[in-house]
Amino acid sequence: MHPAGRLKIQIPIRLNNEDDMPFKRLISILSLLFMTGQGMALELAPIFSDHMVLQRDMKVPIFGRGRDNEEVFVFFRNQKKSTRCNAKGEWKVELDPLTVGVATELKVKGEEEAIVFKDVLVGEVWICSGQSNMEFPLFKSDAAAKDIPQSENNNIRIFTVTPAWSGKRADNFKCKSWQAAGPETVKEFSAIGYYFGKYLYSKNKAPIGLINCSWGGTTITAWTPIEGVNALTGEDDYKKSFILKDYRTEENLKISREYIDIQKKWTSDAEERLRNDTPLAMPPRPPLQIMCTSPSDPSVIFNAMVNPLVRFAIRGVIWYQGERDRNDGESYRDKLKALINGWRLNWLQDKMFFYIVQLAPFDYKTAPHNLPAIWEAQAKAVEDSNDCAMVVINDLGNLNDIHPTSKMEVGKRLAIAALNKTYANNDETYRHAKFKSYEIIDNKVIVSFDDAKSLATADGNPPNWFEIAGENGVFYTAESQIDGNKVILTSPQLAKPQLVRFAWHMKAQPNLINDLGYPTSAFRAGKSLTKNKLEALIDPGDGWDVVYAFNPVDAKVQDNGKKLIYDIDHSKELEGKAFKRIAYFLLLERNDGKEEYIYIEAGSFTKNVSMLGVPDFASKHITQMYINNLCVKSNVSGIKNGSYERGGYLEFFYSDPSPINQYRIPYASDLNLDWGDKGSISEVPGIGSMQIHNWKERQVLFAFNNWKTAKDADIGIGNSPSTNIDWTNTKSARNYKKGQMLILIK
Question: What is the mean pLDDT of residues 525-539?
């Protein structure tokens, strides 16, 4: 809060006699008043300062703190509003809707202090939020040398929130207060935010207030308030993480009280041990599931950086975020919707506009199809939400720099989208071609687009980055031809195409544009993609070869379980082929219909493709080793998605495993079966285990054991809740209707 004038107390010379007592009582009373908040000086939230911009054409809350029951008056233009502070010292008034006019003063008067804010404008207020590409400063942009010297504009005002996080909702934050745009003020400001505001002002001629509330490397989860997650249907595990971490929920309080009781018992026992000269027992482990310990935890950035703004009237938000969440796939769709809805609920403002920047292409080196899944999720979240739009920038990326410097065009596209949708100004139009539908005629796939009166290519060549596939899901580069607002696709390798996708790669910079010259958003379509989650995730066409495929929920075996029979076995054809990467895809459909999946990619641990399959008794394989450059993607709660240079560990045994941690794998137990077990040579079939672990995160990634028992096999993704966290002896295949495992090389 910004403090008002401080109350000055004249302290008399202390007397050394009984006359001193009234003075002591006065000091005690004054101290008590200040300690209880009743003596709190009048102040306003830090968003209020000289040079600020107030939102036009809607009620404008003015709020702050003062003394209990203190009467507060607010004066602006010809309006006078008053209220009284509540018992916590909080106060708020609402100005009637304002119109653009000359700069003036905002006066706030309490019973003992008055605060005056000078040079206050009325116009359009926007929050610029997200991670590093929104935070990216103007002086680093490619047009900085030209634009910074010409940035002087008293009608564009900027405000920057200092990055912070908190487990508790904050009313205050550190910030750079409102400043008029100029060479010295804008150079450190968000480049995209600045260009967005500059272009808006050039068209609307109304003052612009820009609030930079961004922080590089942050997750969408940390920016999302619990109110938005509560409104989601499904996503139970995601909701649960918010509920547990929110100190105000019953679930959090229950675990907190239980821990306090356990801690009290430990303390009592510890005191007894000390009295008896006995070593202390290990203290109880803190309940980390309810504690906010990092800036990636649910709501912690919203609490610290956004909550102090929520009553300040704004027109909308521009949002550029998702690089940190690029492994989330389709789940990002609901996460983005939760953020949008949560902010609107906190502002009590249903018509808060959101303009989203679709992420730029970039070479992440691994998992090339994770980024397109985020592009798809962003597009679908916008389609699901009112008063939202998205701009596509796959023509503006830099494959070698996650922070492309061409920020002016990004800001301009956002501004044109806002001019169209928010301000009904159609002097210019932003729209990008969007997938509408497809039809298959003989060997052709005909793709139709919305928001494209006609199509062309930016370089005059045939459209690129189109791929089509047959029922087996193997994609081939398509030959393409434009026909009005349609593209006709064929491939000499496909007589009956079934699937189509466009720009489905992290490095895709496609040349297809619409009649306005804007690029086209990535998409995928095809019946198999909706029927089979696994086929939507794998991509054999990108240099991958399928070695094996089978159903682990009801494995086919012969010779009394000594040999597993694959549905697909290409090991003989691929024998001798050099490969550097391996991948395992496991899809399980639970009895309740919910799907669980995991994708694991890693550096190869062998040159022999037969070593990659199930280590049945016929193979006599025993393989235990670290695997490097691990990439994990799963929808199962608790699995740590992402890339790990180290952390992978593989255990393939044809025999019975022993819990002895033979190779001293970090965090593994010698008592229970986990990721540090011992295989043994045997002349009879044992339980057998096929497991990949992430020891760094103390997780079983997947386990497939005792396959000779078919529907009584042990199978699971993540840590089992049983004593043996590697699923041994759980007979968990019974929990699933069906499954599919693919093993691939590249």
Answer: 54
